[in-house]
Amino acid sequence: MQDTSTIGDKYEEDYELLSADLPDWTSDFRNEAMLAFKQIGLPIHRKGNEKWKYTNARPIAEPQYSLAKFEEIGLDTIKNVAPWNDSWVNVVFVNGLCQGIFTSDTASNIQVFNIASDELPPNIAKLVGGIVDYSDDGFAAWNSAFMSDGSVINVPDGDNSGTVINMIFFNQGLARTVNHPRVLVNSGKKSNINVIENYVGGGDNHTLTNSVSEIYVGESATVNHYRLMSETDHTYDVGYGRVKIDTDGKFNSRAFFRGCGIGRYDLNVLVDGENASCDLQGLYFTSGNQHMDNFINIDHSKPHCQSNLFYKGILDGNSRAVFGGTVLVRKEAQKTDSIQSDKNLILSPKAEVDSKPALFIYADDVKCAHGATAGNIDADTVFYMRSRGVDLETASRLIIYGFAGEVIDKVEIEELRSYLEKAFLTSLPNHRFEF
Known about the structure:
By secondary structure, the chain is of the alpha/beta class. The protein has helices at residues 5-19, 27-40, 58-61, 75-81, 122-125, 138-145, 379-386, 392-408, 414-427; strands spanning 66-67, 89-94, 97-102, 111-114, 151-155, 164-171, 177-179, 182-187, 192-201, 207-217, 222-230, 235-245, 250-257, 262-271, 277-286, 291-300, 306-315, 320-329, 337-346, 352-361, 367-375.
């Protein structure tokens, strides 16, 4: 951990200034988080730090950041870097602070609040911080202490409108600044919702986005969650997703990462009701000197549940990727059916992936499997493509996109799928498979 004696000195003044403008209900929560932040610091020491074993957090943690200030950005700029549809509920944040909610759809009963608003109902406000545990994680504690803005999405029982909530967190790229986005999704019984989190922007200056999202999947509810990260080589991005699924609930996650100097996504899903399920799929593309760390964990605590964990990576240049995490099956979680898989396509001899999937099974009536692969394309596959009259460059590009398309094709929102297809096609390297 970081030398904790410096944490208070670096950020105490910003914390005090921020606290003066926030609602009273946040005080106890934020004070406890700040105390934890000052006690545990940030995870810069590698020894004994299993969660950050393959990722050096020192470049992220050591700079002294100032809080990013709000500056209104034109919607045309936002629409150029993030998916957008006028029928969606589009919530725009700039440097972690809300610019506005833009939508033409007024049919849904879904409520969207500012997380620090005095209008936030007490029964919803008490859910903030209910899933995330920051007791041993300095970045999550830092976010909680500096929680000043973000989205609360409350979906009433029985709302099956399938509304799309599109949250765009635009980082303006102001030098040595940090923003702390916060998201809470509360889906009621038998509801259905689509949530998109976009982390975009950045520039030529080093900045940090440090986000926390908490998602409650109610009884017999379905939450389809999409997380997109597309920033610059000078941005750092640390994101936490915490999910709790009730009886018969379904949580479907699709994560896409294609731009960040150092990025980490820490997702933890608690399958906490019988017959509940989660399907977690992701695609990451790294190039140059980029580093991407996916730390994905599933906790099965109830019987008759299912989980699928399937991530794919494409690595080029001197980049590095990390896939780690666990599937935990507790003693009470009999009849669990769980699969965990990570597959990586290595395009450069200098690229590296560290994959460490793990199963911890304490029940005796389960079906569980896990695996990881990494490598290049074999000569027979390239020969097959070229024998159909395709030149080497085109064949190579089609093979790479076919590898990525298995995850992109699972996106059910047509406009979002088209955006991702275009985004990944334009960022694929000009690679030639030669033997």
